[in-house]
Design brief:
Helix content: 25-40%
Radius of gyration: 17 Å
Strand order of the largest sheet: 5-2-6-1-8-7
Length: about 250
């Protein structure tokens, strides 16, 4: 059974050089056997309906602006896996999963993969987030995708438990109490198996500040859904100083 990962990707600048966050991703990957394929669920592909990339070769998408040129020069030239994409779409029926050749790997995926699998020789697919659907839909879809772990596929959710750039721009610095408290409350719910709280996060104090838009939070639900009864859950726990506009807490299931 392959583990599943939720990795806090933070700024695209994390791709450029090893740092405390990339080292944390690597710690959570320790002991993972080379997968036949990787499925990434990134905060940065938001759609109406759910899609999976079916490209033969995955383009590197630089979906950001205002960063140094070396970041735009980066490429992650991995193959795709159209056969696996087709298989996922069939397996998840009657939920409709469209096959897309109009996307590739955005920075939510490749900024992690350049550290974890730098050879770029493993097929990678990306699954989109249907923002017309409520959180529980994404949790249930994650459950349905859990079969991929049995096939050795590594599933990576890429986002952040807390993500509010606007707050940070208007008040740089930190740590922010609201960010720390929300992050710790979700971490406690995950540790205690309190999935309803993780899904219904919007009822928690500070939810409007911590999750002003859902796309960075939703990938967590896919990975939380893949935990089987009795499986270990391993979480990183950065000091509050690492919390400004986002939480860099990552986790591993299995």
């Amino acid at each position: 059974m392959q583990p599943a990962l939720f990795l806090a990707h933070g700024t695209p600048m994390n791709a450029l050089a090893p740092n405390a966050f990339s080292e944390d991703w690597q710690r959570l990957c320790a002991g993972i056997e080379r997968p036949p394929a990787i499925l990434c669920i990134s905060a940065h592909w938001c759609t109406r309906g759910t899609f999976v990339t079916a490209n033969q070769q995955q383009p590197t998408i630089h979906d950001f602006g205002g960063f140094p040129q070396p970041l735009f020069d980066m490429r992650y030239p991995c193959p795709g896996d159209p056969a696996l994409a087709t298989s996922i779409a069939k397996q998840l029926a009657p939920t409709t999963i469209g096959l897309s050749n109009d996307w590739g790997l955005d920075h939510g995926s490749w900024s992690l993969l350049v550290h974890l699998f730098p050879e770029a020789d493993i097929p990678v697919l990306q699954l989109s987030l249907d923002l017309t659907q409520p959180p529980r839909f994404h949790y249930e879809l994650g459950k349905a995708l859990g079969y991929l772990r049995e096939e050795g596929v590594l599933v990576i959710g890429s986002g952040n438990i807390v993500h509010n750039i606007a707050k940070w721009i208007h008040n740089p610095g930190g740590p922010f109490d609201w960010a720390r408290e929300f992050d710790q409350r979700i971490a406690r719910a995950l540790s205690e198996g309190d999935i309803d709280t993780v899904i219904d996060y919007h009822s928690l104090p500070h939810a409007d500040d911590a999750v002003p838009t859902v796309e960075h939070y939703l990938p967590l639900l896919y990975i939380a859904a893949m935990q089987r009864p009795g499986e270990p859950l391993t979480m990183s726990d950065f000091a509050p100083e690492s919390l400004e506009h986002c939480s860099m807490r990552s986790l591993r299931v299995g």
